[in-house]
Amino acid sequence: MPPKKQVVEEKIQLGRPGNNLKIGVVGLPNVGKSTFFNAITSSSVPAENYPFCTIEPEESRVAVPDERLDWLFTLYTSKKVPAYLTIIDIAGLVKGAAEGQGLGNAFLSHISAVDGIFHVVRAFVDPDVVHVNDEVDPVSDLETIHNELRLKDTAMLNKYIDANARNIERMGSGGTVDDKKRKEEFAIVTKIRDWVVAGNDVRKGNWTNREVDVINAQPLLTSKPVTYLANVSEKDYIRKKNKFLPVIKKWIDENNPGDKLIPFSGVFETALAALSVAGGEAAAVAKFLEEKGAASAFPKIITLGYDQLNLMHFFTAGEVEVRAWTCRKGVKMTEAARCIHNDIADSLIQVDVMKFDDLKTAGSEAELKAAGKLHIRGKDAIIEDGDIVYFRSGMGRAKK
């Protein structure tokens, strides 16, 4: 008798499941959060030179750049619809926010509502732009935000522990199935609390699937993926040199190894955005970039933020439109089809799949099919980033 196949448990991801995920812009007051938000989203949120200029969170979305979509658009010459990343501008945090300082409780609740974080840190010196602590010290700023998020998580976890400790103690070593489940959950929450109190972010822990289930049931701030954005002067951005970047990178490597750091210039990006919003022709924008000798950091920032949320996109292409559809990485064809319409997913039979590189090499669908590169996949197959798909369902050839 052949040995039984070992069943590999599918790893559950931290975070809220879904495709409509949001990333929040977080940092101290006056570090350039609203300037960043306005430039990247072409918005007009007030970005004045005083703390707490932003109170209520502002929301907008930006197209996720993808050269593959651009190429498909030239092939099919139809309407182009990109994938989008939703960005939230959140008011600045200050030391003591976890205890309510600087409207801290409200602002921290805004962070709990997003799925990922763009952490903006000030890395420029300008006497005309006030700093909430009267000095530019990126490491101190990083520590402040890091500590406040951990303190809020600690308070939330302690609240759960305090509310349940007595009942768990009364249960003793026996109890019903439900009692055992509650004791297990209590032990997990205690383990998470101890991890955070030790100075760690939840997202950096090596958790089991059961532990991830418990974490995902709590709106823990340090469980969210973080991309660090250093706001440098235009001069430093163009010359690719800034005295603060090495110490910022060192802090990230020591405290949250693996997290990404991207420098940008709020001044540079604002000027570029103003030119684009004003209807500047492509030639004028290109001239501006050539004169500055630099390119926008936003495509890299948007793409990385999208990836940090564990998102990817697949394509549908036809005479009407070429569209990028957002889904979570690792989902099956059925769930990908659900991004388009529930009825397609519920009656899905099979999927025609073209790999982007195969289509680009072939030059057309007809040539790709002639080369035997059209793949037929079942509804339980995993969809991959960049797949160009035709969903066949009981509704007919549902989406092209």
From TrEMBL:
Gene Ontology cellular component annotations, sorted alphabetically: cytoplasm
Lineage: superkingdom: Eukaryota
Record GO terms (molecular function): ATP binding; ATP hydrolysis activity; GTP binding; metal ion binding
Residue ranges constituting the OBG-type G domain according to the UniProt record: 21-284
Obligatory cofactor(s): Mg(2+)
Keyword Magnesium: yes
The protein, known as: OBG-type G domain-containing protein
Organism: Coemansia pectinata
